[in-house]
Amino acid sequence: MDHGEDPGATWRVEGLEERKPGRFRLGGIPPLRRRTFWVIIGVLLFANWLTARAILLDPPGLLVPYSVFLDEVEQGNVVRVTARGDAIEGIFAEPVTYPAAGQPDSATSADFETERPAFASEDGLLDLLRSHDVIIEATPIDPPAPLWQLIVFSFGPTIIFVGVFVMILKRFGGGGLPGGLGRSKAKRYEHTPSGRVTFADVAGIDEAKAELSELVDFLRRPEKYARLGGRIPSGVLLSGPPGTGKTLLARAVAGEAHVPFFSSSASEFVEMVVGVGASRVRDLFAEALKVAPSIVFIDELDAIGRSRSSGPNVGGHDEREQTLNQILTEMDGFSGAEGVIVLAATNRPEILDSALLRPGRFDRQVVVNPPDQAGRHAILEIHSRGVPLGPDVDLRALASATPGMVGADLRNLINEAALSAARHDRDQVTMVDLMSSLDKILLGVERQIVIDEAERSRTAFHEAGHALLGMLQPGADPVRKISIIPRGRALGVTLQTPDADRYAFDANYLRGRIIGALGGRAAEDVVFGSVTTGAESDLEQVTHIARSMVGRWGMSERVGLVTALPGPGQEGYGRAASEATLQLVDSEVRRIVDECYETAVGTLRGHLPQLEALAAALLEHETLDETASYAAADIAHTKGAGAHWSGSDVAALAPEIAALNRDLDDVGPSPRHH
Questions:
Q1: Which end of the chain is less packed: N or C, by CB atoms within 10 Å?
Q2: Which residues contact residue 216 at a Cβ distance below 8 angstroms, ignoring those fewer than 6 apart?
Q3: Whole-number Å distance between alpha carbons of 661 and 672
Q4: Contact 268, 185 (CB under 8 A)
């Protein structure tokens, strides 16, 4: 693989033994033990040879005295003899027992062996044998085993044993852990021209791309920085909400730099066996050093990088803590000249151990935020490259209709639209497919259930109450769609989205959100004189907004400019205020909600004809888009610049506005569910 402009002169791999070509290596075995290993192999080969020789040689015959042999010849019981020097071997016609039966060590055999005494050279044995028609030979009765058999049976078992033993050693990686537990499960991606991910495949997160472009330049031209004493960052931490493209951004860095990319999830390091995680970390970094310059990417770092003070340590042998310590040790061992960069991603940087975030380990922290409207438009263009779009598709309008959506959401939106077009046998994806897919993603699939007329009427007034307050409340987000068609867990829904992305929210806007959320409950109270359980999700949303206003954002004069409640993800760290302050927070929350509810009821009572007209239109049409909603309520509406709505052809939908600002990530969805 091409790694750029010959970085070999600049990058060096410290701590690795130089590998000589053609040299057989047994990784993980120390030199002293390696010599012992070869001595054992030699002893095994010799023992194997002796065993095979004993097996392949002919079994010895019955050893009889020379006199017994002569007696058997005279009795005509000898069929064949073979002479080798003074040794005589042969075959009896009938098996002979010697010593005599019943004697110790007696044996019976037709094959025999004997030794001719030196003084018996003139005993006329040859004439005796010929007179009794004995076959006389001077060669062995059975030929010796072929050479290939001798070699195979002498050395084959030991060679097989040694091969299996070496394979086991290589699989263990020298770590001594059974089953290859100590080997890293990281996947290595080689960037071929057809499958390489580059910055051109990443959009909507330009600030993060600009921050990481320096790493790419450093990997391509290290000498540019080395001559000025610059040192490459040991690690870069990518943080941000799920689906914003952290993993894609890391792969793009590797693709731009043309270097190997090792990807692993932090949870893959941890097993039930203590020490496995640390062994896998060592193996991963050793593999990355062998092909340096390279990039190691660890996803979901918080799985093992959680602060060590956040929980009890079980007996001092906590596997997660050992794994974290090994990562810290490996990153400390970098001098900056190895060419290995560690990229990590997390959704919760606030819970990471402080030792990970200090300079020398993760030197940089890059925040990957959800894209703005222009970013969403660029992301939609990337994900629709291979999708045939119809002439009515307006990606800018779609981008403005999806505030808060991240790259993964937009990719899913395009895919669902393509599936919808295929179900309807279309050759192109139309705007109707895109909007229906957006409906499906945000609201769920339509439920085919039968609702009686009384409950259907109550649902219509409930949603009309939400929508009418959204139209009348100053500064509220425009109403985009109202529906009483059951979807997902909701019987009806009212959608409000801003004309442009918003990043700050004042107290008046938040009060308007509370008033709008209480509109359904207030409408039921005004029209029917009773309430139902349909406002449960509305009350949860209202309570959370009010508590955040009072306890987190300093929007109450009685509580003051203090933080009395923990932020998102910090609920397990104990109380943030005294009991008296928390009671004050609760009373202020009650006051704000009660004031907003009185405003909601009073506004609906003053506009009761419009409420009834809007509910009647919902009962007739079941779904009203932006234009039809304002027309039914007889309220003038001026669309904001950049909205690009086209009446009933475009259903302007969006997820919760709170996703635009991470401080509001728990406020709740802008759609009002009944």
A1: N
A2: 253, 256, 257
A3: 19
A4: yes
Six-digit token string for 234: 């040991």
pLDDT at 102 over 80: no
Task: Say if CB 83 and CB 74 are below 8 A apart.
Answer: no
- Report the pLDDT value the prediction gives residue 154, as an integer from 0 to 100: 66
Cα separation, 652 vs 531, whole angstroms: 30
- In terms of average pLDDT, the best of 169-183, 201-215, 583-597 is 583-597
> Looking at the chain, how many residues does it have?
674
Most confident of 70-74, 301-305, 421-425: 421-425
User: Token pair of 344, please?
Assistant: 């990590």
Residues 6+ apart with CB under 8 A from 195: none
Indicate which residue of 211, 287, 338, 463 is catalytic: 463
Q: What is the DSSP letter of 269?
A: G
**For residue 13, what are its two tokens?**
């791999």
Task: Indicate the SS3 state at residue 449.
Answer: coil
DSSP code string of 482-531: EE-S-BTTBS-EEEE--SS------HHHHHHHHHHHTHHHHHHHHHHS--
DSSP assignment letter at 659: G
Give the whole-angstrom CA distance, residue 264 versus residue 255. 17
Whether 579 is a known active-site residue: answer no
Contact by Cβ (8 Å): 182, 173: yes
Chain segment 552-599, per-residue pLDDT in tens: 898 988 888 888 887 665 655 556 678 888 899 999 999 999 999 999
Q: Classify residue 412 as exposed, middle or buried by CB count within 10 Å of its CB (0-12, 13-18, 19+).
A: middle
Give the position of tokens 């031209």. 221
Q: Which two tokens stand for residue 658?
A: 């709170």
Task: Identify the three-state secondary structure at position 11.
Answer: coil
Q: What are the Cα distances from residue 512, in Å, to 210, 211, 517, 608, 663?
A: 38, 38, 8, 19, 18
Q: How many helices, marked H, and strands, marked E, lie in the chain?
A: 22, 15
Burial class (CB in 10 A: 0-12, 13-18, 19+), 544: middle
441 in helix, strand or coil?
Answer: helix
The C-alpha angle 65, 70, 73, rounded to 5 degrees, equals 130
pTM: 0.63
Phi and psi (nearest 5°) for 99?
-55, -175
User: CB within 8 A of 524, min separation 6: which ones?
Assistant: 458, 461, 462, 465, 530, 531, 532, 534, 535
Determine the straight-line distance between the first and last CA of the chain, rounded to whole angstroms. Answer: 58
Q: State the DSSP code for 364.
A: E
